[in-house]
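Researcher: I need the complex structure. Ligand is cobalamin. Inputs:
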Amino acid sequence: MQRLHPADFACQETCFVLYMQPMKVLLFSLSMPELIMPTLPLGVVCVATAAQRDGHEVQILEIALGSDAGQESAEAITAFAPDAIGLSVRNIDDQTMRGTHFLLEPLKAIVASCRRISKAPIILGGAGYSMYPELLLEWLNADIGIKGDGEAALPAVLDHLRMGVDVAMIKGVYVKGRSPFKKICSILDLNKLSQPDPVLWPCPIEGRQGVWLPFQTRRGCPLACSYCSTSSIEGTALRKRDPKSVAKHISHHAEAGFKRFYCTDNTFNLPADYARALCQAFIDAELAVSWTCIVYPYKIDEGLVSDMALAGCIEVALGFESGSPAILKNMRKRFSLDNVRQAAGLFKKYGIGLNGYLLLGGPGETRETVLESLSFADSLPLDFLKLTTGIRIYPDTELARIATAEGVIAADDDLLLPRFYLAEGLDGWLQDEITRWAATRPHWQG
Ligand code: B12
Ligand code: SF4
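Model: Output:
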């Protein structure tokens, strides 16, 4: 149904009733199982829940790459006749230097297909979008974009649209062709947001036990590692949910059939008192679930690790990134190799699976520092090690500044098409060396 504009009405009262009619919102999420590991679309379900709670009618359409995206989107639009179309831009690329996959072309095709049969405004959001808010509106030919948190901004945009008010007035909302400096949408009190509604996950009931259901307890990271894009996605101010409400959310999903959970927070263990409180809330709620999380190896103590084990944590991603103190300093990491070793030992002691991550080739990296990192990783009790060579350069990062100063990228490179930093003298040698080490270490993947 075509929505009416306020100017179409003379009588204020009639207007009010019509303005309050819900909008129909079709939200697209793209999965690419052949290129990147599948995950459930947490961001989309968050904004869908929020729009639904605000009275709007929402439908999520997950399109798999390889299917006929144009045909599927056309059918959904014809059947649902949305007043607004939302498109989640999570991934720009696979962040892999060798044989990089750029992942935005299929989204372009979806937008084009929507345009052919619908006049509904196209609204972008998601981690990938938040990094390139102006550029992606142009590149994907969309109308409106939300940088940062979407739960308050999307309903606000829908309200403005149905009342015919300019959405550019909303903080963090971008409009194609207009480029005032806009801040990020950042909800200070996450407890004001409702948690994702279990019925909205694009996952059949029979598949629920086997998936890792993503959940989030915190947003924002103040640590400013040299290569990291999180500040442009979540901001730098740490915001947290009440631990008891997180436990309730998990319990609610456990009742709905989900048994394994993935905490998407950037640093589960920070701040330590909050991490302890979360574990305690899980323990008190007697959750019969397993979960995994990402930890930052800084001063992880035995009390926390034992609580994590009791609370159901079965595996952690330990992003230590390097085994060279000099490189850790260049990356602006705050932890030491002793911190990493101590944390690894504790996770092992409490039976928590340990996945390590090395990010090789950044500024200052040499053959010596690479060998230091490989030996260090080899000395840890890891169950799995992921080795990444070359670092994806993101806008507004220290790495981008270094890469520009060194002439690795041009000063006007917008960095949407993936560019990587690899220190001089490592090309070829680095990959060969990793292959050599991995040949006798089946739990290493490079
Ligand atoms: C946790 C995480 C993972 C986990 C996911 C676990 C899981 N089961 O979900 C794992 C480790 C598996 C993973 C894998 C990958 N990841 Co990852 N991941 C993250 C991380 C840290 C958090 C994502 C998250 O869930 N956030 C919580 C949700 C609630 O936030 P959100 O999705 O951003 O949604 C909010 C807003 O963006 C917005 N929003 C979202 N969608 C929409 C849609 C509309 C219409 C609107 C209006 C708003 C909106 O509102 C939401 C609520 O506020 C981000 C970094 C970050 N800080 O965002 C990287 C990140 C998204 N990952 C990234 C990448 C590259 C990948 C991989 C491709 C890596 C690889 N080579 O395999 C894969 C892809 C997996 C996939 N299928 O998408 C990059 C993407 C950038 C890029 N270069 O493309 C990021 C940004 C990290 C980075 N380098 O900066 N990832
Ligand atoms: S700790 Fe993680 S999220 Fe925070 S700045 Fe460093 S890499 Fe980014």
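Model: Summary of the prediction. Residues 320 and 357 are 6 Å apart (CA to CA).
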